[in-house]
Amino acid sequence: MDSILVKGNGPLNGVIPIAGAKNACLALMPATLLSEEPLTLTNAPRLSDIRTMTQLLESLGVEVSALQDGKVITMSSHGLLNPVADYDIVRKMRASNLVLGPLLARLGHAVVSLPGGCAIGARPMDIHIDALTALGAEIELRDGNLHAKTQGGLKGAVHEMRFASVGATENFVMAATLAKGTSVLKNAAREPEIVDLIHCLRRMGAEIEGEGTSTITIQGVDRLNGATHPVVTDRIELGTYMLVPAITGGEIECLGGRINLVGAFCEKLDAAGISVTETERGLKVTRRNDRVKAVDVVTEPFPGFPTDLQAQMMALLCTADGTSVLEEKIFENRFMHAPELMRMGAKIEVQGGHATVTGVEKLRGARVMATDLRASVSLILAALAAEGETVVSRVYHLDRGYERVEEKLSACGAKIERIRSE
Ligand code: EPZ
After folding, report:
1. Is the alpha carbon torsion for 139, 124, 111, 30 positive or negative?
2. Is residue 305 in contact with ligand 1, taking CB distance under 6 Å?
3. Which of the four, 1, 4, 53, 234, has the lowest number of CB atoms within 10 Å?
């Protein structure tokens, strides 16, 4: 397993290109199952999660070809499809559950392994099951698999979700595009990745309204066509790199960044003393003073503060002037970066869904371990500002969601290198 060595090296300055959104691409790729014609995605991120989704779709019978070093993905599911999503792939990545809705819509049946829990929580599937059942699916849990089928095809329905689940919104919307009649999803998730998926489905001929709001209306159609669609910028990678000048000082321009992708996040940065300026080509970020101010953070569904930026924000607040309280309301166990940050001298007290952080002047380099995707990058951020050397182990977590981290940060003056394990 590779590690990453970082030596704290003072303020960082430069330009960082932001890639296409992992969480948009992981929903866009299964959409190919809805049409017999090819779906091409451009601006795709080059990540291990995308390779896992490629593996899964190929196991279902989809032809996938990656061009331009993986930035362009062309998929075609005109052939015979296998309706079984195998545990060995699904267990590696929860987003595999996003083939359930499209397979049901296209084939009328599917077997998808339960993804199982992961480091940040149990992550059940009940909201997905309720949503697809509302469209007429019969879903039964047997031997660790969801066995789903529908007699005579899916039928449009009005359904209100108990929680604005991102994945369940995506499964419902994709399934409803081919259901008979009109569907209305209430308490729908509003994330930009869902807006991007709906833009792509509309390009494929779907009739959908209300993306970005809590009520999405879908008029079922008989078939969908192929399309070419650019993956939206990754707002979580964007927010992560915006924290680099915040924690080390200096000035970084994040190419492709737009304020509307990170509204609530920018409000918090402003309160902490960080300036964000929208330029023609991205977002320019600088710290107004030598030390950021403590701020409280509560994670919420979009447009609230993103849970996927909570770990990174905690790293920043470990160096803030004052005490901050972070409340994690989306996942039940998403503070595993805290003990690792404490190894670097951070002062953090975790109680249930709350973490109280008392800022220190300087963190100190240490050997630390990545536990999940966003925790891993929060350790990198802390290491950039720490005194001395830090070695982050198990960086396979990092490679799931961040492409070429060392390259992007070294270009801004960071002393960072990958230590390859044999
Ligand atoms: C998506 O996961 C993202 N993943 C996550 O990003 C992100 O943290 C999450 O949305 C919240 O924004 C992808 O888009 C691939 P949810 P998803 O369904 O769809 C509970 C990252 O770091 N829940 O909105 O799985 C669930 O346990 C990843 O890139 C149920 O109880 O999130 C969680 O506590 C991590 N039953 C909460 O809802 C269900 O049926 C939010 O889950 C579904 C979810």
Report:
1. positive
2. no
3. 1
